[in-house]
Specification:
- Two copies of one chain form a homodimer.
- Chain A is of the alpha+beta class and about 450 residues long.
- Chain A is built from 19 helices and 16 strands.
- In chain A, strand 12, helix 16 and strand 13 form a beta-alpha-beta unit.
- In chain A, helix 8 runs antiparallel to helix 13.
- The radius of gyration of chain A is 29 Å and the shape is globular.
């Protein structure tokens, strides 16, 4: 057959990539556990009735649909078939689809398991999702999401803890980040104030350009977007918003004095910032940023986004508070707040900054060279002791040429090699070579374990 | 909308189930690493050209196929459409399918990555697979496989190490098992000896019934299957095969004296058993079992299967040596040997024997009750210290009724609860309650950490 390939937009992960990815997932998972979150998993495939209509028309098109088993033509008239209406017939041919994100399956999960869940439910989920997007650099058709959410609690302490989690995750990675925070209610307040509720995205996009294009051009853009002059005038202090978070909030308080929603948003931000400050603050920068408008239709309170400071890349984590997670499945009133870590981008950041701990990548610590049956028999005895001590170790299964075995050791980046030839065998000892320093020493099995541990 | 559901044959995994499953996967993974295996992952979807024809006609039908995006009717004539040939048109509607096992994707991986792989390649893979099987008790449409294989080495030391791995995994689980071993070459030798190569499965099935139906009925069954009387006569010592592994091999040596292949198989078994014995043997029983015929068309040397001794359940692990893993993808001569652990059955075994370590299941060690803003502020300071010490801990985000908070603690099976009321706050101390013993004590934050660690 032809040379095999994999579907476009998908990836194989080789051992070194896997080790790095596991390091990322393990680090995030540790922090999730540290904060009392519990893991769940949902099936890769959901009923299409669960998925369709949840991600907009564009999202529906991007769902991977699974063809029904057996005779999927059953019940279809010739006329329907010949209509060749691909979108419409997909729902006849297919009842199931692959998960598009972790949020909708989570909402479905909460509804189905409501009786057994102890609320507030702090769940995390690390699983792949699939989207039939056009593949391009950094965008895949199969990729992992790492989500943590608290549902069933309105307390802002949840927001505080999520910020602490973000702070702790990136401290563990050794990546300097800026944690940006906004609040949907502040944006709603602004829209209310200028009487242009539907222009909020235009406004945040324009404000975001201040540094690049200057105040005059920002105002011009707002004008072009149809914002009345009077409203633009009112927005001036917001566009020019600068200083510390406290200073920004003070300015906003004046600007939004007349809007109840806006003031509520400011109050929430203040509360979160105050609690954090009393706890000693975050190690990473935490910045109030009004241009943050991610998932605007979805979030109802706090909005978070994380930017790496030392690498040019999009946001590497984000989230926020939402109302009514499960309403679409007939269970109203469940609000929540969550964050999501972008594993693929974090992978790129850690690669660029070379921040992987060496021992996260090298699995095998010790390799025994194989010189033949008698030597291998002794080596395997020592090997068992080494493994009993919890050290990852192996022996070359074939007594091939020394050069080949050392090439294997190098390819696997094994830090220690154990050589047992005739003389070592006679002495019951092992010649241990440190592959990094080149140093060699003749040691007993016990000394060997001591040296490597 | 209607009450949501999930596709039949799939499962949600709730926190306790996930914790148990993670314990299983982590234990197996640890042993894989201990023996120098490296993890890879392959995409959930493969090209159908990679999957089709690899699992027999029945397997092809059980593949989950993914409908092409966009206009999947393109290029189809009306006639083809109206033929309603579901199987044939599936290959027009679908180019991709979900992974059916980990072996074929692994073979595809080896071929595609041959230039970068250092052979012998010791890889493991823990990922879900999908089969459109009729769902029934214990059989799912989405389930995990845990495979470890060594490819590119003919050495029998690989077989030895795989047996050691099985032994170590089940020792770690605390499950008593019988590791059964056979060799395809011995079975081939038997077939050669009686001149009935295609009857090997009938023969092993009949032999397997000796204990249940007795010698006479076994011979009758063989006769019914068309084995000539002379051949049945020759088989008598094999049917009655008993005693230690050494005794069995001694008998087989006589019976198979005239067959080169059979003797080779005996030699391989002897070698594996001898090496293991020199290493102190296995802790679990290791039994030569000629009735083991799993994957007969696939395996070419050793065959393994693992049975739990204290639970009635099918095999919980199995594997063997195969030739020519990658031949179908144009890369001949790559042989290998591997094992697969059945996570779902191991889950059931550990459940039945109640063998999960308690701390594998309970994530959160300490819960702070929330009595209000001031108390929570102090609690969260202590909480940060506790987390810095690596202890998984949380605080109730809402200062709801004590009863509700304690119910939450119980539902999550948290072993320690920290109570900070007005008087504790005044003293800067914490009232620590051990939820198992009921014991309470007033402690400083430092003492708290000491007590829980």
């Amino acid at each position: 057959m032809a040379k095999p390939s994999i579907p476009k937009g998908t990836r194989d992960f080789s051992p070194v990539e896997m080790a790095k990815r596991n390091y990322i997932f393990n680090t995030i998972r540790e922090v999730f556990y540290l904060f009392g979150f519990q893991q769940i998993e949902t099936p890769s495939m959901e009923n299409l009735s669960t998925l369709m209509g949840k991600y907009g028309d564009e999202g529906d098109k991007l769902l991977f649909k699974i063809q029904n088993s057996g005779d999927y033509f059953k019940g279809l008239t010739d006329e329907e078939l010949l209509s060749r209406n691909a979108a419409k017939l997909a729902s006849k041919f297919c009842e199931k689809g692959l998960r598009y994100d972790l949020t909708v399956p989570f909402a479905r999960y909460v509804v189905m398991h409501r009786e057994e869940i102890a609320f507030p439910f702090k769940r995390f989920q690390i699983q792949p999702v699939w989207r039939a997007d056009r593949p391009q650099k950094g965008r895949y058709r199969e990729f992992y999401q790492c989500d943590a959410d608290v549902v069933g609690s309105d307390s802002l302490l949840n927001e505080v803890e999520l910020i602490q989690m973000i702070d702790r995750v990136f401290r563990k990675f050794g990546v300097r980040v800026c944690i940006k925070m906004n609040n949907r209610k502040i944006l709603s307040g602004l829209a209310e104030m200028i009487g242009e509720a539907d222009k909020i995205v235009d406004i945040t996009v324009a404000i975001d350009k201040l540094d690049k294009i200057g105040l005059e051009n920002v105002n011009k853009e707002l004008e072009e977007k149809g914002i009345p002059a009077e409203a633009i005038e009112k927005l001036q202090p917001v566009i020019m918003l600068q200083g510390t978070n406290a200073e920004k909030l003070a300015t906003l308080k004046q600007v939004l004095a007349g809007t109840e929603t806006g003031l509520k948003g400011i109050e929430e931000c203040e509360y979160i910032l105050n609690v954090l400050e009393n706890l000693g603050g975050t190690q990473n920068e935490l910045e109030l940023d009004l241009t943050l408008a991610r998932g605007l239709n979805y979030y109802t309170g706090a909005i978070f986004e994380v930017k790496a400071l030392d690498v040019e890349i999009g946001s590497i984590s984000g989230g926020g508070r939402y109302d009514n997670l499960t309403g679409v499945f007939g269970m109203p009133g469940v609000s929540g707040v969550g964050i999501s870590f972008g594993a693929d981008r974090i992978y790129d950041v850690l690669n660029q900054l070379d921040l992987y701990p060496k021992d996260a990548v090298n699995a095998t610590r010790l390799l025994f060279v194989n010189f033949g049956e008698a030597e291998a028999a002794f080596s395997m005895k020592v090997l068992s002791q080494v493994r009993d001590a919890g050290i990852n170790a192996e022996i070359c299964p074939d007594s091939s040429k020394m050069k080949k075995q050392m090439a294997y050791a190098n390819a696997k980046q094994v830090p220690f090699v154990a050589i047992v030839g005739e003389s070592e065998l006679a002495e019951g000892k092992v010649n241990l070579k440190n592959m990094i320093t080149g140093e060699q020493s003749l040691v007993t099995p016990e000394e060997l374990i001591e040296k490597i541990k």
